[in-house]
Amino acid sequence: MSDPLYYLGLAAVAAVVVALVVGIGGFGKGGEFNRKNANKIMRLRILFQFIAVVVLLAYVYLRSKGG
């Protein structure tokens, strides 16, 4: 568990969860915040998801190679 890529993967997944919760919360509440920020937050979530998938794939690949 001392692998820094593991912790980077956890941080990336946490960022996805935070963006998702903020986006869903804003959508549920509606109002001005949702109108201004809904698309930005969901785009940010997609970016975080991409980063998380890349990091997790790198982790799995490197662990399978014994690195």
UniProtKB/TrEMBL annotation:
<dbReference type="InterPro" id="IPR007667">
    <property type="entry name" value="Hypoxia_induced_domain"/>
</dbReference>
<keyword id="KW-0472">Membrane</keyword>
<keyword id="KW-1133">Transmembrane helix</keyword>
<feature type="domain" description="HIG1">
    <location>
        <begin position="1"/>
        <end position="67"/>
    </location>
</feature>
<keyword id="KW-0812">Transmembrane</keyword>
<feature type="transmembrane region" description="Helical">
    <location>
        <begin position="6"/>
        <end position="25"/>
    </location>
</feature>
<protein>
    <recommendedName>
        <fullName>HIG1 domain-containing protein</fullName>
    </recommendedName>
</protein>
<dbReference type="Pfam" id="PF04588">
    <property type="entry name" value="HIG_1_N"/>
</dbReference>
<feature type="transmembrane region" description="Helical">
    <location>
        <begin position="46"/>
        <end position="62"/>
    </location>
</feature>
